Amino acid sequence: MNCDSVEQFFYLKGYTVLEFVSSSKGAEYYLLVKSDDNPTSESEGDKTTNSMKLFAKSVIIKKNNAKRKLGEVATIVSLGYHPNLVEYVDSFINYDRLNIIFKYCDKGSLESIIKNRKKRHFSEKTIVNWITQILCGIKKIHDAGLIHRDIKADNVLLDSEGLIKICDFGIAKKSDLLNTFCGTMSYISPEIHQNDVYGPKTDIWSAGVLLYYLIKLKLPFGYRKSEYQNIIRLICTQQLPPLPKGYSIELRQLCYKMLTKQHELRPDVYELLREDIIQEELKRHIKQLKAGENNIKNN
């Protein structure tokens, strides 16, 4: 789709395209606002000052992926609102493309945030805050009887209020025992790599890889496709490389628990949320959410 036709199509649906953001693997991404949002200024330059920015994911629908692409919308809608899941706004089909619109997260993905750190480590306070919110989002997914199956830094966003938002439910599935190989290589659990049946705890492994990444600023088992077989061997058999001692033993132990290779011994999301280090942060997180709700009511 050329830019002009994209802008015209979204305009007919009530949205104004601000800019093309990027494209990847058959998907195009756009920054939008609702066309009827009222500006705070009459000048063209300030046209979107007070408009809520939206993010559109436009994906090509083919015979072999139509069910999965449409299933992503059904999954997002079925989950409803949760502060730690990306906020669904709208969806519609245009010829061979499915367009899904979300509330925009202006801080970007954790992957981009990590890359921009340039090897400057995050504070423990920041890491605990983020992993607590990630676990809250995973709990919502698991409560709904689903497995995300692709938790990774690219699929975890941050908004301007400091809220984590899990996104990309394209391969989420009902949490019956599964044996389909899927996910992102460096984040895939040992049970999936070994073609074993798996359940919700595969998301815990992936979140543990992400936690390790946040702590050490490098993935525990590598990431290069050329090292695929070696990465599988490391994930399934190799002892986890140690975490830096500059972080508390509680945080390091949390990460090690999440990266327990035997899924039967790996804690589920409910056990992790009861960990002392998470409980303390959870209280602050809930307090922050309530304060935000009160601000909305008072405005």
Automatic annotation (TrEMBL):
The lineage of its organism: Eukaryota, Sar, Alveolata, Apicomplexa, Aconoidasida. It comes from the Eukaryota. Its EC number is 2.7.11.1. Pfam families: Pkinase. The keyword rRNA processing does not apply. It comes from Babesia microti (strain RI). Keywords: ATP-binding, Kinase, Nucleotide-binding, Serine/threonine-protein kinase, Transferase. PANTHER family: CAMK FAMILY PROTEIN KINASE, SERINE_THREONINE-PROTEIN KINASE NEK1. InterPro entries: Kinase-like_dom_sf, NEK_Ser/Thr_kinase_NIMA, Prot_kinase_dom, Ser/Thr_kinase_AS. PROSITE patterns: PROTEIN_KINASE_DOM (PS50011), PROTEIN_KINASE_ST (PS00108). This is non-specific serine/threonine protein kinase. It is an enzyme of class 2 (transferase). One of its GO terms (molecular function) is ATP binding. It catalyses: L-threonyl-[protein] + ATP = O-phospho-L-threonyl-[protein] + ADP + H(+); L-seryl-[protein] + ATP = O-phospho-L-seryl-[protein] + ADP + H(+).
